[in-house]
Write a structure and sequence with these properties.
By secondary structure, the protein is of the alpha/beta class. It is 47% helix and 12% strand. The protein contains 5 helices and 5 strands. Helix 2 runs parallel beside helix 4. The termini are far apart.
């Protein structure tokens, strides 16, 4: 954290470690707490720096993870509490964005593949054959489109 704290232009942190959400809850809490304490120290240090010499303050924290696409059961009440607590504390010291984004890009990729697959089954007029429906199943999640 000292490297990030001493960096004059750092505004974003991406937490990965392979997959940020693979960490145990206690480990993830320690990592996020360390990021928060670093942001607090950086903000406090800027109070004594003259204008023009202030360091950039942390504005965005991103979690790099695709785990929820494969293990949605990873979302436990404890994990939700950890992420919510960090977001609330970090917002108080200027972090404007707390992002978990890769899942959305993964879902868009899946939807594009599904759309391509559907083209194979469509009738010439674009409709699916009568009485057909799709069952899209991810671990622990079932979506039945009408």
């Amino acid at each position: 954290m000292h490297y990030f704290e001493d960096d004059t232009q750092l505004r974003d942190i991406l937490i990965t470690g392979g997959d940020a959400l693979m960490s145990q809850d206690a480990t993830l809490r320690k990592i996020l707490d360390a990021v928060y304490r670093m942001a607090v120290r950086k903000k406090k240090a800027n109070e004594s720096r003259p204008d023009g010499e202030k360091y950039a303050e942390l504005q965005r924290v991103r979690l790099g993870s695709r785990l929820l696409a494969y293990l949605p059961m990873r979302v436990t009440p404890e994990l939700v509490d950890i992420l919510r607590d960090f977001k609330e504390k970090a917002a108080q010291v200027g972090v404007k964005q707390f992002i978990y984004k890769p899942i959305s890009s993964l879902l868009w990729k899946l939807l594009r593949k599904l759309k391509a697959l559907l083209k194979l089954f469509r009738l010439p007029d674009g409709r699916l054959p009568a009485n057909w429906y799709l069952l899209w199943q991810l671990p622990g999640v079932v979506i039945r489109p009408n």
